[in-house]
Amino acid sequence: DTEVTQTPKHLVMGMTNKKSLKCEQHMGHRAMYWYKQKAKKPPELMFVYSYEKLSINESVPSRFSPECPNSSLLNLHLHALQPEDSALYLCASSQDPTPAYEQYFGPGTRLTVT
Amino acid sequence: GEDVEQSLFLSVREGDSSVINCTYTDSSSTYLYWYKQEPGAGLQLLTYIFSNMDMKQDQRLTVLLNKKDKHLSLRIADTQTGDSAIYFCAEVLNYGGSQGNLIFGKGTKLSVKP
User: Fold this and answer.
1) What is the pLDDT of residues A52-109, one digit of tens each?
2) How near does any CA of chain A get to the CA of B105, in Å?
3) What DSSP designation does B105 have?
4) What is the pLDDT of residues B20-69, one digit of tens each?
5) Chain B: nearest CA to A46, how far in angstroms?
6) CB-based contact, B95 to chain A, within 8 Å
7) Taking CB atoms and an 8 Å limit, are B99 and A97 in contact across chains?
8) Coil, helix or strand for B42?
9) What residues of chain B lie within 8 A of the CB of A106, using their CB?
10) CA B25 to CA B27: how far, in whole Å?
11) Do B105 and A42 touch (CB under 8 A)?
């Protein structure tokens, strides 16, 4: 099983809303990632959790707040977003954060901020 | 620098071979990946190659690595219409050797004509 699931598949939210994106994997992976992908662009790394601890934050604005409640779950809490935050948000996981392990991606959540 | 370069478009006829090229910049990259993204979907890991290899073959896919020129290619034999997608090359950016994060190229859109 190499599946990473993400919910919801689509999300439309206003700039004053608070919402959360969820990601789940049951492969026993200990590294989980959030990426942002704008249209016609490659994914860009936002956050890395390694063994349930935030290890990398690529200078992401505080209106994005990640959370890793346990080794299988990764959330991204959204608050006071801007229209330019509209994008496909991809979650990924790997067995370990070291370079030797490939990352498996979920299908993404397509977010539209109105 | 951290730029991974790819040509943006490739068009082939069904049954022909496709070759997608990529150049990367980090000579210390130990793993190089190819991902496939269909419209509206997440990224699917196709294959990867370790930097001490010159070639890797996996069914219809052949990866060639020229480490001296930092050039990577993906050959798809007997290309089918289902292969139409965007193909991303990615290198692992090492954070002090203990953690590797993916840097993606801009993606090559492969169109397969019947």
Assistant:
1) 999 888 889 999 999 999 999 999 999 999 999 999 999 999 998 887 788 999 999 9
2) 6
3) -
4) 999 998 777 778 999 999 988 899 999 999 988 999 999 999 999 999 99
5) 11
6) yes
7) yes
8) coil
9) 42
10) 6
11) yes
